[in-house]
Amino acid sequence: MTIQQIGSELTAYQILDVEGNLVGAMPNLSNERILELYRIMQLGRMFSNKIIALQRQGRATTFGSLAGQEATTVGLAAPLQPQDWLATSYREIASLIVKGVPLSTLIYSFRGFTAPYPRETHCLPIQIVIGTQMPHAVGLAMAAKIAGDPVVAVGVCGDGATSEGDFNEALNFAGVFQAPVVLVVQNNGWAISVPRSRQSAAASFASRGPGFGVHSVLVDGNDLFAVYDVMQQAVERARSDQGPTLIETLTYRLGAHTTADDPTRYRDEAEVEAWRLKDPILRLQRFLMKRNLLTEADNQKIIDEIEEEINRATDEALSLPAPAPDAFFDYTAADLLPRLQEQRQDLLRYATHQQNGRR
Ligand SMILES: Cc1ncc(C[n+]2csc(CCOP(=O)(O)OP(=O)(O)O)c2C)c(N)n1
Ligand SMILES: [Mg+2]
């Protein structure tokens, strides 16, 4: 498949249908690699459930599950090379896992402070400020291009982020400077309680690309093979200096926005049920079982092993000292300006006051 320039046409590219049957040409992936990616999809969902449980016990901060979005988050990171940059929001934990960020580092970050990820993973810390990671990705790509490095940068945001200036500015810079970047919009239907229909009157977010002179594609975001395929091609286009690509992945947030949200107050359960039938993990599982690449027993073994892996990483992350309340100042600037030094002191005074109040 070659990436088509799309206008307002609304057909999402698909390789694997809901029943796990091939309806397009398979990307170049070995059976071992497919099984590994399937394992990380399962890991992404189980990791999400674990952090939600820790949050309920008061041992983790607010957390947004990626349940339902495993094919997109795993598929977008899988074609990347170690030197390629990844700049994401909070919904792409599985992408970071594919890139090699250790589970214990990620779990520790949900104790209130995101310590830097290992340098060699080339992942920026997750962004909570909506949309800001998109110009970061374009900047990293432009820097690589200027330096002549064969490095690609990927920025990932949600449907809600497309209404931010940052998203549009990133697209414009990417087009004007032909940055080796891939900008991915995970359209999961909702931005907290704001539905996709209230975000834009455009038929698709992908259709925004051509207005910026950026190659665009719309893909079934619950289809691992399709996401991998379009991503692989976009990354190669970027690496061979053929320019940036905008990819919209059509997916769905099966859970709450975060642990601080109750979607039953604004969302029809029938919509959720309809998307459960398109579950990306079940879809790939059906494919694997039909091809005799996975049995029920294999599947159970994978789940048991992941559970152990997550529990080990949790023990490790919880055994570390709690992050200092002012730790993030260490990463704000090389030398703190007087105003920031003052803010740091204020924060420490406040934290001490709070602690004394509790005694
Ligand atoms: C600049 C900014 N404005 C508002 C918020 C509050 N906020 C947090 S998540 C969110 C919705 C984002 O929706 P979307 O981009 O679709 O991402 P999703 O959560 O669906 O993955 C908002 C408005 C924020 N974090 N940053
Ligand atoms: Mg969204």
From TrEMBL:
EC number: 1.2.4.1
Alphabetized CDD domains for the sequence: TPP_E1_PDC_ADC_BCADC (cd02000)
Protein name stated in the entry: Pyruvate dehydrogenase E1 component subunit alpha
GO process annotations (BP): branched-chain amino acid catabolic process
Subunit structure: Heterodimer of an alpha and a beta chain.
Catalyzed reactions per annotation: N(6)-[(R)-lipoyl]-L-lysyl-[protein] + pyruvate + H(+) = N(6)-[(R)-S(8)-acetyldihydrolipoyl]-L-lysyl-[protein] + CO2
Record has Oxidoreductase as a keyword: yes
Keywords assigned by UniProt, alphabetized: Oxidoreductase, Pyruvate, Thiamine pyrophosphate
Limits of the Dehydrogenase E1 component domain: 38-325
Coiled-coil annotated spans: none
The protein's required cofactors: thiamine diphosphate
UniProt entry tagged with the keyword Oxidoreductase: yes
Primary role: The pyruvate dehydrogenase complex catalyzes the overall conversion of pyruvate to acetyl-CoA and CO(2). It contains multiple copies of three enzymatic components: pyruvate dehydrogenase (E1), dihydrolipoamide acetyltransferase (E2) and lipoamide dehydrogenase (E3).
GO molecular function: pyruvate dehydrogenase (acetyl-transferring) activity
